[in-house]
């Protein structure tokens, strides 16, 4: 997954902030808005019947639906300022099934958010697009990679981040 991090970093560096947007990037997930504390987020999810596994500054959700898509794993990341990142992931054995989901997501995100940036790393098995507004970014990635267990899968990931909340933590380091 190091390759995934490099792709996202390249997208962030290469994106033009002057790009016109048709809509603000999403800031609420399962009723939890960026900036919400981890404790409050856990309570909101519990009230919605969503089981969240707490691990240090993260909440893990499994087999959930968001935006009409089934996600195998969702990680909500928190810092001292609250929720700042939501990472959604789905893995596939079939390249065709993964690409089908990726292409549907790309079409929907382009319709909603408008302009995007693409990664220089795009290839047959690696594609990445980023959508941004003044505060948030959304990165859509298709990648072939190794799982934690050592198996190879095609991954479709959607990564939302509130850059202001993220940068507050980075600035303090």
Describe the 3D structure.
The chain has helices spanning 2-14, 38-47, 95-113, 163-172, and strands at residues 28-29, 32-33, 53-55, 58-66, 69-79, 82-92, 117-118, 126-132, 136-146, 152-162. It has 173 residues and is of the alpha+beta class. It has one domain. The strands form 2 sheets. It has an 8-stranded antiparallel β-sheet, sandwiched between helices.
State the major sheet: 8 strands, antiparallel
Shape: globular
How many domains is the backbone divided into? 1
Spatially, the strands of the biggest sheet line up as 3-4-5-6-10-9-8-7
Listing every helix as H and every strand as E from the N terminus to the C terminus, the arrangement reads HEEHEEEEHEEEEH
Q: Please count the beta strands (DSSP E, at least 2 residues each).
A: 10
Distance between the termini: 24 Å
Roughly what percent helix? 25-40%
What's the overall average pLDDT, rounded?
86
Structural category is alpha+beta
Low-confidence stretches: 1-22
Number of separate helices: 4
Question: Quaternary status of these chains?
Answer: single chain
Radius of gyration: 16 Å
* Percent of sequence in beta strands: 35-45%
């Amino acid at each position: 997954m190091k390759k995934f991090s490099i792709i996202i970093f390249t997208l962030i560096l290469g994106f033009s902030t002057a790009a016109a947007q048709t809509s603000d990037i999403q800031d609420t997930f399962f009723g939890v808005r960026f900036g919400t504390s981890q404790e409050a987020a856990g309570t909101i999810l519990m009230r919605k019947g969503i089981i969240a596994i707490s691990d240090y500054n993260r909440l893990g959700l499994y087999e959930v639906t968001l935006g009409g898509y089934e996600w195998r794993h969702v990680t909500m990341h928190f810092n001292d300022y609250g929720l700042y990142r939501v990472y959604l992931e789905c893995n596939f054995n079939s390249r065709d099934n993964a690409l089908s989901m990726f292409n549907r997501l790309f079409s929907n995100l382009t319709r909603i958010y408008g302009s995007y940036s693409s990664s220089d790393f795009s290839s047959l098995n690696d594609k990445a697009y980023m959508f941004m507004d003044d505060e948030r970014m959304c990165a859509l990635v298709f990648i072939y990679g190794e799982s934690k267990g050592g198996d190879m899968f095609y991954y479709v990931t959607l990564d939302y981040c509130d850059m202001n909340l993220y940068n507050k933590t980075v600035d303090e380091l």
